[in-house]
Every structure is written in structure tokens, then in C-alpha cells.
Design goal:
Order of helices and strands: HHHHHHHHHHHHHHHHH
Largest sheet: none
Shape: globular
Number of strands: 0
Structural class: mainly alpha
Number of domains: 2
Helix content: over 70%
CATH superfamily of the largest domain: MFS general substrate transporter like domains
Length: about 500
């Protein structure tokens, strides 16, 4: 505990210097979770060749993780409230490391898919406990702003860092290290958590809502699975339509049950709150656009421009730097002075502007003049948006609801990423196919027309991503009406020594 100049222990909330080391531990866990949503993207071609995956099945390296993560987050949040956030945090770290080791040692495609699904399960336990630990560790408004700025930078920049790390590990070691790398990160986080994190035991009044868990998780799983299957099967395929219908029915039943459950999995007052609902929607829509952009730019840089995995990963570095700058140097400094929507709405406008620049890509575009400016704008916009979303969504929540509220923010992020990848990729593929069919008249030009078709599909999908981000900005401006957090009264000046 820190001390004032008079030697009296300083008991003001948020002033314990150990809390900043606790933030390092929490940020490490969050980085590991977010990394694994993208780190295997660049490594996927190597893993596919090594394990003899078919083109139809290779998507499960990505979707097995996002399906388990997005579908089980609400249950993970409630478990954190039930048994205690620190215990849940440690359990999630150990399980995530074990699943990563299993995936790195995979000898068959099925073994890798299973390991990725297990990673998603443990991430669903780990993510909400990490965010709720952050919420309860930093209660002083000024320090809370700084802490959420760092956390938002990790959450926003982690995906881009995953692409860079995936390229480096794949090119200089092999694809398996994209999974093994989680083990030392988890070991450091476990040691730090045992030493630095403090938490009250679980809340005895919290009970697991088993019917709610089955309905809610089942509905989310069905919808995310439907989006993932829409890419190879098509949007009108009977299985895809059935999955969407089942998902809607289950989620409708989930809402009905939550109104009647004695201890609901998701207390509806959390999502009925206008500001929180606005934050959840803004997060989900923002990530739809961002994950789609990651997918397209990864393939554009490697397939169209011929970048190596390392060069493609490093190409995202300026965007990562912009996210960190926007989150820690702009949002964190302004959060206590301006309403959150004055950060979130301009942030989404900046990101949408960056997307519009990317719609002008051609097969001969240059990085410095066309790609770099867009990435900087997207990164700044995301940095401005993520931190106030996390902070506003989890502010002033009852302790017994901290875990499930944190889980809802993460659910919006993960489900948005899953939907964005499937939705925008389907739009891109359809547009590319139509372009090639309309322009291929001479077999001698097949290669050029195919490359032009690929880029055309990307730019059509990016137009959609820009529109989705503008919608996110509009929702933030209209729904998030909360004011800046009130500053605590200044501490009394110490008496002068006589």
C-alpha cells in the first residue's frame, strides 16, 4: 500500500502500485486470447499441407475456436461470478495453455480442430474473469481511464499483433509455434496472478442457470455455425437456413426464460440499459468490419502483391501502433473530460474513412500511398472506440453482475468477428466469381482477370464493412448518452511538518 507524505497509508481506491502490475497480468491473458483469433491465419496454409486438410475443412482451424468462444462466453461470465474471478482466471489460463500444447503437437486435422475448440472453451472462461478483475481492481476514475486505455489497446491491437507473430513464427520456426507460444505467456500470467491478483470469493447468491445456458449458448452456437457454413455452402443452403432458424428460436426462448428464471444467466436489466446496449452494438458492428479487413488484407498482401508471411504480418504494424496511440494517448486522456460517444462516434467515422480508401485498391496498388494511410486511420478509429466501449459497458455494475457484463462485451466482440469473417468473405467470393464470369473472354488473360476478380471481391466487401462501421458510429452517437465519470474530491493536503 502506498503512503501519503504524512506517512499515513493511502487507502484511496486505485492507488495501490501493485494494481499496475496486476494490469500487466490481466493484459497478458487478454493478449493471449485475442492473438489466437488471428495468429493461425497466416500459418494456415502450412498447417493445411502438413496435416493434409481438405479445402472444405481447413476453415475449422478458425471457426472451431470462434464457435466455442462466442457460444460459451455468457456461461463463462456467470461461472466467474459463482466461484470467484481469480480462481476462474487461473483455471482458464492453465486450460488454455494445455489446449495450446495439444494443438501444437497435433498429428491429424481432427486433433488440431479439437484443440482449437478446447482453446475456445477455456477462452470463454478466461476472458470475462480478466475484464471483471480489471473492473474491480481500478475504481478510481482517473486511473480506471488509463487502465482501460491499455486494456483497449491490447484488445484492439492483439489481432494485428497475431498476424505479425503468425508470420514471424511460421517463416522462421513452423506453424506449430503459433500455438506453443501461448504456453510461456500463460506461465507468466499464472505466476503473476498468484502473486498480484486479489479477489473476494464467489458470490453465494449466484446460481448457474442451466436452462438459460443451454438456450443462450445453443442459440449463439447455431447462428455462428450458420455464418461459418454460409461460406462453403451458400446462404440459401437448407442446412444454413435451418441453423439460422434454430438459432433465432433458441435465442427467443432464451429471452423468454430470462424474464422468468429465478437467477437468470443474463439479467435483462444489463442489456436494457441504453448505454450498455449501445456499447454492445457498437462493439459487435465495429469488429465485423475489422475482422473482415484482416482477412482480406492478409490474402491481398500475400496472394496479389506477393508478400512473404513475415512481410505481410509486419505490414499491419502501423495499424497496431495507431490502435495503441488512439487508445492510450487520446481516449485515456479524454475519457474523464468528454462523453464516451464523442470518442466512439468519431472513432468509427475515422475507421470507416480508412475502409473507403481500401475500396480503391487495384492489382497494382502500392503500400505507402494507398494501404498505409488506410491502416493508420482504421487503427486510430479503433483505438478511440474500444477503450470507452469497455469502460462504459462495465461502469456502475453490481459486483454480482460484473462477470456476466464483462462476458457480454466479449460476446459482442467474438460473435461480431465470427459474423464478419463469414459474411464479408461470402460477399467477396460471390463478387469475385461474378466479375470473372463477366470479364473472362480470352483464355490468355485468365490469370490477370482472376487477380482482378479477387481484388474486386475484396473491394465490394470492404464497401460493406465501411457501411457497417458508419452504422456503428451512428448507434454510438444516438444510444450512448452517459456523461464523463465524476472526478473524486481532491485528497486533503497534508499538514506541514513543524
Amino acid at each position: 500500500m502506498s503512503r501519503t507524505q504524512t506517512g499515513v497509508p493511502d487507502t484511496r481506491p486505485g492507488t495501490d502500485p501493485h494494481s499496475w502490475w496486476a494490469l500487466v497480468v490481466i493484459a497478458l491473458a487478454q493478449l493471449m486470447i485475442v492473438l489466437d483469433a488471428t495468429i493461425v491465419n497466416i500459418a494456415l496454409p502450412s498447417a493445411q499441407r502438413d496435416l493434409h486438410m481438405s479445402d472444405a475443412n481447413r476453415q475449422w482451424v478458425i471457426t472451431a475456436y470462434t464457435l466455442a468462444f462466442g457460444g460459451l462466453l455468457l456461461l463463462g461470465g456467470r461461472i466467474a461470478d459463482l466461484v470467484g474471478r481469480k480462481r476462474t482466471f487461473l483455471f482458464g489460463l492453465v486450460g488454455f495453455a494445455a489446449a495450446s500444447a495439444l494443438g501444437g503437437a497435433a498429428t491429424t486435422a481432427g486433433m488440431l480442430f479439437s484443440a482449437r475448440a478446447l482453446q475456445g472453451v477455456f477462452a470463454a472462461v478466461l476472458a470475462p474473469s480478466a475484464l471483471s478483475l480489471l473492473t474491480t481492481t481500478f475504481t478510481n476514475p482517473k486511473e480506471r481511464g488509463k487502465a482501460f486505455g491499455i486494456y483497449g489497446a491490447v484488445a484492439g491491437g492483439g489481432s494485428a499483433i497475431g498476424l505479425i507473430a503468425g508470420g514471424l513464427l511460421t517463416e522462421y520456426l513452423n506453424w506449430r509455434w503459433c500455438l506453443y507460444v501461448n504456453i510461456p505467456i500463460a506461465v507468466l500470467a499464472v505466476v503473476g496472478a498468484l502473486t498480484l491478483l486479489h479477489d473476494r470469493p464467489g458470490h453465494p447468491g449466484v446460481r448457474l442457470d442451466i436452462p438459460g445456458a443451454l438456450l443462450g449458448c445453443g442459440g449463439l452456437l447455431a447462428i455462428v455455425y450458420g455464418f461459418s457454413e454460409a461460406q462453403p455452402r451458400g446462404w440459401t443452403d437448407p442446412m444454413v437456413l435451418t441453423l439460422f432458424a434454430v438459432g433465432i428460436v433458441l435465442l427467443t426462448a432464451f429471452v423468454w426464460w430470462q424474464r422468468r428464471a429465478p437467477v437468470p444467466l443474463l439479467p435483462l436489466h444489463i442489456v436494457k440499459d441504453r448505454n450498455r446496449a449501445g456499447c454492445f452494438l457498437t462493439m459487435g458492428l465495429a469488429v465485423i468490419g475489422m475482422f473482415g479487413m484482416f482477412l482480406f488484407m492478409t490474402y491481398y498482401l500475400q496472394v496479389v502483391l506477393g508478400y512473404s508471411p513475415v512481410k505481410a504480418g509486419l505490414a499491419f504494424l502501423p495499424m497496431t501502433a495507431a490502435i495503441i496511440t488512439g487508445s492510450t494517448q487520446i481516449s485515456a486522456r479524454l475519457m474523464n473530460r468528454v462523453p464516451p460517444r464523442l470518442l466512439m462516434a468519431p472513432g468509427m467515422l475515422l475507421a470507416a474513412t480508412g475502409m473507403l480508401i481500401l475500396t480503391q485498391l487495384t492489382v497494382d496498388s502500392t503500400y505507402a500511398t494507398e494501404i498505409l494511410p488506410a491502416m493508420l486511420l482504421i487503427g486510430l478509429g479503433m483505438g478511440l472506440t474500444f477503450m470507452p466501449v469497455f469502460s462504459t459497458a462495465t461502469a456502475d455494475i453490481a459486483p454480482q453482475d460484473a462477470g456476466v457484463t464483462s462476458a457480454t462485451v466479449n460476446t459482442a466482440q467474438q460473435v461480431g468477428g465470427s459474423i464478419g469473417t463469414a459474411l464479408l468473405n461470402t460477399i467477396a467470393t460471390t463478387s469475385s466469381t461474378a466479375y470473372v464470369a463477366a470479364h473472362l473472354h480470352d483464355p490468355a488473360t485468365r490469370e490477370l482477370i482472376t487477380r482482378e476478380g479477387i481484388v474486386h471481391g475484396y473491394t465490394v466487401a470492404i464497401w460493406w464493412a465501411a457501411g457497417i462501421m458508419l452504422l456503428a458510429g451512428l448507434i454510438a452517437a444516438l444510444m450512448v448518452t452517459t456523461k464523463p465519470p465524476k472526478q473524486p474530491p481532491p485528497a486533503p493536503a497534508p499538514e506541514p511538518a513543524i
